[in-house]
């Protein structure tokens, strides 16, 4: 016991969180309050749910650093979705979990099923902190934390995901919906990347607000586009902003597109693309009625899109969507290399519709 305590005290392996962790502290404290729950000895599971790029991983890393040394062992399994898809990645995740908890001890696992048995046998008397970052399939949870009985009393398990269905299936004690940044936080985060200071230069104040509005307060976009604009003139900023409205930033789009690519079938993808072009702001029931005529099974499809944070529903039952997700969907339709309007599956710009109909060039 003394050796274990000394080992924990000497553990300096904190994770890098961010150079400019704007808004991180308050969100971390919100979640930590739940995780402690008057120092409950129950095994508690917390889900963190939100769209790609909203900061789930950043917050989870900060929590891991903040409370990790209070446990017998801790493990942060990052990029579970990516690693799982690699050859040998499934067993690797199980081995990495054990290596993290039992510092310096390597365990060779033959297959997933034997790994589950080993995890249960070795962890059930350990009070651990386990973070599973970017979980995308139920099978991943089954292999890494199939039951609370695998873990010692007082353990805490955090799951970050884009898919609410995963959190419901796992029976988490609380599903925490990631909070959007407010305007002040958004301007500050953007400024650190665009100007390397906490507020915009005076001559860039108005255009900065316009860029932040375009980014929809999404941390990923604020950082990527801020870095790209650093050191450029105001006239170039205006040009870039106009271009982004037609052609989204590739780095941001690729991150967001993971959720689209992960949809179950082409019916769900078609529903998503239809909503991006035609149905934002419309009543959910009206959209279901329309798309049922296209035999797209929209009752289930729209539910899945909501669970995966690709579509939202407001208090008046209207469909909504983050502007960058809308732009990502429309860019998918344009395809690469960029298709001419008459070759696209859907048209949404009035000018394109008028040109195609006038010239009768549609397929």
Note poorly predicted spans.
none
CATH topology of the largest domain: Rossmann fold
What would the average pLDDT be, to the nearest integer? 90
- As a percent range, the share of helical residues equals 40-55%
Report the sheet-strand fraction: 5-15%
What's the total number of strands? 7
Count of distinct structural domains = 3
Please characterize this protein's 3D structure.
The protein is an alpha/beta fold. The chain has three domains: 2-177, P-loop containing nucleotide triphosphate hydrolases (Rossmann fold, 3-Layer(aba) Sandwich); 183-246; 260-359, Arc Repressor Mutant, subunit A (Orthogonal Bundle), CATH 1.10.10. It is 53% helix and 9% strand. The protein has 18 helices and seven strands. Helix 14 (266-279) packs across helix 16 (298-307). The termini are far apart.
